[in-house]
Structures are given as structure tokens and as C-alpha cells.
Amino acid sequence: MAARIIFNPAAGNGKAVKILESVKPYLRDQDIEIVTTKGPGHATELAREVANEKDLTVISLGGDGTHHEVINGLMPMGKTIFGVIPAGTGNDFVRVLHYPASLEQMVHTALYGPNRWFDLGAIDDQYFLTVAGAGFDAEVAGWANKHKKQGNGTWVFIRGILYNALGYRPQPMTVTIDGHSTTQNTFMIAMGNTQYIAGGMNICPQADPHDGQFEIMWVEGIKPWQILPLLTRVFRGTHVKRSVVKTFPARELTVEGPSGLWVHADGELIGHLPVHVKTIPKAIRVHMGI
């Protein structure tokens, strides 16, 4: 078997089913197994079954939540090569892979393209590909996961931002790096292994999954009327120029705050504060475009 495709039929509000039917002609006469998830967490189990096969490519056909589950099945071994066929709501991970626009070429790249070592983030026993965070972004992620069937793409996240903007109140958070702690009233904190969240928001514009560190983006406790003007800058990544935003690199950090505050990773709610977050350099090989 050259590859295993882990297919999530629930991804993208039905989009994944259509994409699978579209790619099947490109998979004929190839030694490729397609396995279908049956519910939350199943993609992790299906990935774990083959996690020790170093000559195997594992493809996640779904959204960022599916990719999150698959990578958590492949780690901590990290022996297989990973690729994706995007079919979700946000599709943020694939934005850094430089895949071709053509579906046929995209599938070929996901299966056979050049591979490069990627860093991952880790929070306790959870691994993540893109961005983890606490505060406003975690609240929006939770809202978006509940409402994915009511829209597609970035619009779901924009609706979540608008819904949560007026009612959200900043909370005190403490960040500790190398034994040095800083506390401030916080709107949100994001830890970027890659740049994007929420369907293309360039939240951590300097994040690079090949440099062995996160870009941290920490926003102080802003007023409700300041939220939308700041967030309109996020798609271009210019929000980091505002005085209320701090950015800095870190390989490892602890984030503390009220115990009821959610934490997300790859847009999936994974727990509450406090958390210890670290980079896993060169954790897994990923098929990329040129």
C-alpha cells in the first residue's frame, strides 16, 4: 500500500463527499486505500493503525479538524508522510503547502509531491498543525464548530466574530517563558506554528513551520468598540502593527488564566487554561507543492 486516505464524509457540510467522488478517477490503478471515519475521534484511530509505516503516505481528506485528528494519530511516531486534500470550512493548513489549484494536480502533490519536515505544536498530549489560542479566538472557534452546517468558509467565522464581539470580556492571563512571567488583561493570545486561522485570517503573519518556534500574538484587553477595527486588519496581517498587539517568538511557554477559559488548537476546543505549549521541531514530513 502506497497511501491511506482518511476520509471524513461530514467535513465541509457535504463538500468532502463531492470532492472524494471527483478525485476517485485520479486514484485508479494505484495502491491506495480509502478508509471512512464514523464519528469524532475515529480519524485518530485510523491514523494510529498505520503510524509506524515509514514508507506510507497518509492523506487527510477533510477540514482542519480532520487534519488535527489525523496528525494526533500519526504522532508521536511521526514516521509516515502526511498530506491533505482540503474539504472543510476553513482549510487553513493547506494555505501554507503551495498546492496547485487544479484538483488533479493537487491530489498528485498530496500523494507524491516533494516532502519537507514540518514543526508541530504540542499542548500536553495534543498536537496541532496551525494555531492554538485562548480568549476570544477560542470562543469563536467553539461557536463556529456548533454552526458549521449553517454556512461555508470564512463567513461562518465572521458570523462567530460578530456574535461574540459585544458579549466577550477580556480576562487576566499570565504568560511564562524561561521562568519569566508577564500578566495582562487579555483579549486573546494565539500561538502560531503557521499563519492562518478561521478561513484565511493572517493571525500570526511571521509564523513559519520550519523554524523551530512559534510566533506569539498577544492582544491586550481592548474595548468592544475596538474589536471590529482590529479584526478587519487580520486578513492582511497588519493588526500586529497596532499598539494593543504584542508579537514575539517562543519555543515553549505556559499560559495561565481563569480555569473556565477554553483553549483551541487547529480550531478545535481541546481543554481549558492553564496550558503548557511547546514546539516539536521537524516532527513529521509533509507533501508540499513547489
Top keywords for this entry?
single chain; 290 residues; alpha+beta; Rossmann fold; Tumour Suppressor Smad4; 2 domains; 15-stranded mixed β-sheet; two-stranded antiparallel ribbon; 7 helices; 36% strand; globular; metal-binding; kinase; Diacylglycerol/lipid_kinase
SSE blueprint and pairings:
Blueprint: E1 3-7, H1 15-23, E2 32-36, H2 42-48, E3 57-62, H3 64-74, E4 81-86, H4 103-112, E5 115-123, E6 126-128, E7 131-135, H5 136-146, H6 154-165, E8 171-177, E9 180-192, E10 196-197, E11 201-202, E12 214-220, H7 224-231, E13 245-250, E14 252-256, E15 262-265, E16 268-272, E17 275-287
Parallel strand pairs: 1-2, 1-3, 3-4, 4-17
Antiparallel strand pairs: 5-6, 5-17, 7-9, 7-15, 8-9, 8-14, 9-12, 10-11, 12-13, 14-17, 15-16
Helix pairs in contact: 2-3, 5-6
Order of helices and strands: EHEHEHEHEEEHHEEEEEHEEEEE
Indicate the radius of gyration in whole angstroms: 18 Å
Characterize the overall form. Answer: globular
Regions with little confidence, pLDDT below 50 for 5+ residues: none
Total number of helical segments? 7
Organism: Sulfobacillus thermotolerans
Pfam families: DAGK_cat, YegS_C
Keywords: ATP-binding, Kinase, Lipid biosynthesis, Lipid metabolism, Magnesium, Metal-binding, Nucleotide-binding, Phospholipid biosynthesis, Phospholipid metabolism, Transferase
Protein name: Diacylglycerol kinase
